[in-house]
Request: fold
Amino acid sequence: MHLDEIYQEIILDHYKHPRHFGKIPDGQAMVDEENPTCGDHIKLNAAVADGTLLDVVVECAGCAICTASSSMMAEKVIGRPVAEVRDLIARFNGMMRGGAELSDDELGDLTALKGVRKYPLRIKCCTMAWHGLDAALNQLKA
Amino acid sequence: MTSVLPFDAEAFRARFPILGQPVRDGKPLVYLDSAATTQKPVEVLDNQRDYYTTMNANVHRGIHRLAELATEHYENARVKVARFIGAPDPRSIVFTRGTTEAINLVAQSWGRAHLTPGDTVVLTAMEHHSNIVPWQLVAATTGAKLAYIPFTPEGELDLAAFERLMQGPVKLVALTHMSNVLGTINPVESIIAAAHRAGAVVLVDGAQSVPFMPIDVAAMDCDFLAFSGHKMMAPTGIGVLYAKPALLEAMPPFLGGGEMISKVTLESSTWAEIPHKFEAGTPNIAGTIGLGAAIDVYEAMDRDGARRHEEALTAYAIERLMEVDGLILRGRAARRGGAVSFSIAGVHPHDIAHFVDQDGIAVRAGHMCAQPLIRQLGETALTRASLYFYNTRADIDALVASLLRVKRFFDRAP
Ligand SMILES: Cc1ncc(COP(=O)(O)O)c(C=O)c1O
Reply:
C-alpha cells in the first residue's frame, strides 16, 4: 500500500487531534454543509473584526482528509487579514482542481494534502472546509 | 427444463472479463460493490456487440428488415422479463431507465391520479432515496402524507408499528424487498396481504432482491415491482416497472411523445395500448435486449446453487469481519442478502474505502443513498461490502486482510 502518499503522519495528527474544533449546536452554525456523495458533514463559524479573521470554529464528522484539511485550514487562516484569506482560499481550491501549485513554504502543513490531487473522488473531502469558510466570509461581508 | 450443471462460482466468475483485470499497479481486482452495480458476463457483452452489428434500428417504426429484427428482439425481451418474474401477461412490463424511473412513474402517474389530501403513503425507514424522494414530490403536490415503518436494532421492520399505521387512511405502501444497506429481506408477502386487506396498493422495490432470488409476482401479489437491469448483469440505463395490467390501463401517461400515442391532432391525443403508453420516445433498445441476454444467463444457471453460494459467502464474510477489532456490523436480520455494511471505531468509511482500494478492493463508503437509515444508526456514513454470485472466499479473505492493515495503521498513528 502506498498509504504514506496521502495519509502522512501530519494528516493523521490533525485527524486525531483536530485544532480549532468545537461542538456547534444545531441551528447555530453559519455554514452547515454535507457532501452528498460520502456523508462528510461540516459545521463552521467564523468571526471577523476590522478586516481580520479573528476565529474559526469547525465541527466535522468526516474522513481523515476532510478533518485534517479543516484543522490545518483553521490554523493557517486565524489572525490573518480577510483579503489574504480569501486569496488563499481561491488559490488552494484552484490548486486542488488542477490549477497552479502553491509553494510548500506557503502551505506549511497543508503541503501534505497535495497528494490528494491524484484521487479525483477525494478532492471534495479536501476542499469542503475551504468552501465553507468562503461561504461564512460572504455572510459576514453581507 | 434441460439439466443444469451445479453452480460453480469459479466457472461463473470466469465469464466476467473485467474481474480478471488488474487495478492500481497490477493488483488483482476484488470487486465487492455489486449492490451498486454488477459486472457483465461475456454473454451480455457479446449480445451488445451483436445487436449493434446485426440489427440496430428503431423499434415499432419502419417496416424494413432491421426494424423488424430489432422490434422482435425488443418485444421478446419483454416476454423474457415477464416469465422471469412470473408475470402472466407481458403487457404488465414497462421498460424504464431503472428502478428510480419506475418508481417516479408510479408516483407521478398513479400517485397524482389517486392521492388526495389526507391520504397516507406508507414507506419504511430503510428505503433507498429513490423510494422516498418521488413520494415526497408527489405528496407536496397532492397533499398526501408520508408515514414510515420503523426498523429494529437488528434491522428488521417493526411489524407491530406497521399494523398500527395501517389503521389510518393508507392508499399505498411502498417498500424495499431487500435493503441495500442492512441486507434485510423484508416479509413482503405478509405486508402485501395486510395492505390489501386495508384496501391499499403495494409497490415493491426489487432493485436488490430480483438479482438475488427468484421472484414470482403472481404469488407475491404486489401491485407494482420496480428493478434495475444493471444490478443483474445487464447494461446500465434499462430497468423495469411491473404493474398489474388493470392498474396500468387506468393510469394516465407519465411522459408524452412518440411511441406512446395512438392518434395525435393539434388539439389532443389518444394513447397507445399498455405498456407502450408508458414508453414515450425511442427506448433503450440495446439495453433492453441486453437485459434479455442477462435473463438467459440466469435461466441457464443453477439458481438455487448460486443463491446458496451467496448465502454461505455472506455468512463467511460476517464471521471473518468479526476478526477486525472495533468493527460493528450494521444489520443482523435473520433473512438477509449479500449487502454487508459496517463501521470500524476510529476509522472513517471514506478512509477505509480509500485504503482497501489501494489493495485493489472495491467497496462502497458513504450513506448509500439511504440517509434516513444511516442517521437512525447514529452514523453519517458506513462501509459496505456487497456480494454477487461471482465472489469467492478469496475476495473476503483479501478484504479482511486489508481491513486488519487499515485498523493497525490508524491505531498506530500519533
Ligand atoms: C434498494 C434500491 N432501490 C433503488 C435503487 C436505485 O436503482 P437505480 O439507481 O438503478 O435506479 C437502488 C440502487 O441504487 C437500490 O439498492
